[in-house]
Amino acid sequence: MTAEVRVHYGNTSRPIASKLSLLAILLALLALTSLLVGARWLSPAWLMQIFEVSDNSHELLVFQARLPRALVGMLAGAALAVAGTVIQALCRNPLADPGLLGVNAGASASLVTLSLLPFAAEWGLFWQALPGALLASAFVYVLSWVQHFSGQSQAPVRLILAGAAISAVLGAYVQASVLLNPQLFDGFRYWMAGSLSGLGWTDVHSLWPYLIPAAVLLWLLVPGLNLLLLDCSTALSLGVSLQRHSALAWLCATLLCAAATAVVGPLAFVGLVSGHLARAWLPLSFRVLLPGAALIGAILVLLADILARTLMPPRELLTGIMIAVLGAPFLYFVTRRISGRGRTS
């Protein structure tokens, strides 16, 4: 990290800690709320009594249903947010998001296709989703580099349109496969729209073994990624391999997307919203942006899930629908803002 970045980071360390602490407190409050709300509402006092007096019905509701659901939501939201933040930086594209670029759709198509194989259950959801995520991600990665070296890096909408085309085609394939195959319909009809309903501890255990290694590797790449944020020529002059750092960071982002999508379905807009809010509120250093985006992504998914469970009781909306309701206006705002800059420049 250059001296300029280090000084900027050091002079603002106290406000940064306060902002991250505020996000952590908000996430904790939402996690507590997630344990209380649903078809059967619990009061905070009632929740505390579970720890003091054994109540099998409420213990099952909180510890076997709502707690793992909240944990999966936080892990998936953090993973998609970090992936989106990294992809936005690598593409130098403020509209980049794993859902909008087709990475989540690739994971979904791969998972649905391989689920038809008799031996696929032995692989686990992550390994079924990974091939499609890697293929879609590789296509977008190559396309972003082609745009960058051809001088089209200032046309971010083109990359999003290409990703939207991929998402549309793969999304149609997933929907057709699920609707036409009874074997897939029961297991994937809610999943393909993004849902946290019915998730348990098995899903928590299927997430963290893949999220942690990807997150650790991404953290080790932070110094080089910070240099890439400044300028490509600066990174090259300091001996940083652009292609190696970019490829490894992109691979980590793909792993995060595949793991999250395999469990909760293709949730769009999480990376877009979280990456933008993190960059608007925090310094441009990955050492701060990554944890900040992770907290914001976890907050966004938990908030959407709480709204999905409380807006139409006793019915439950899909979490993916609520995230789309929150994220689509944000995408419109960002697109208009970019278009306005293009006209004035």
Automatic annotation (TrEMBL):
GO terms for biological process: siderophore-iron import into cell. The chain crosses the membrane at residues 20-42, 70-91, 98-119, 125-146, 158-180, 207-228, 248-272, 284-304, 316-335. It is a multi-pass membrane protein. The keyword Transport applies. Pfam families: FecCD. Keywords: Cell membrane, Membrane, Transmembrane, Transmembrane helix, Transport. It comes from the Bacteria. GO terms for molecular function: transmembrane transporter activity. GO terms for cellular component: plasma membrane. Gene3D superfamilies: ABC transporter involved in vitamin B12 uptake, BtuC. Belongs to the binding-protein-dependent transport system permease family. FecCD subfamily. PANTHER family: FE(3+) DICITRATE TRANSPORT SYSTEM PERMEASE PROTEIN FECC-RELATED (PTHR30472:SF1), FERRIC ENTEROBACTIN TRANSPORT SYSTEM PERMEASE PROTEIN (PTHR30472). This is Iron complex transport system permease protein. It comes from Marinobacterium halophilum.
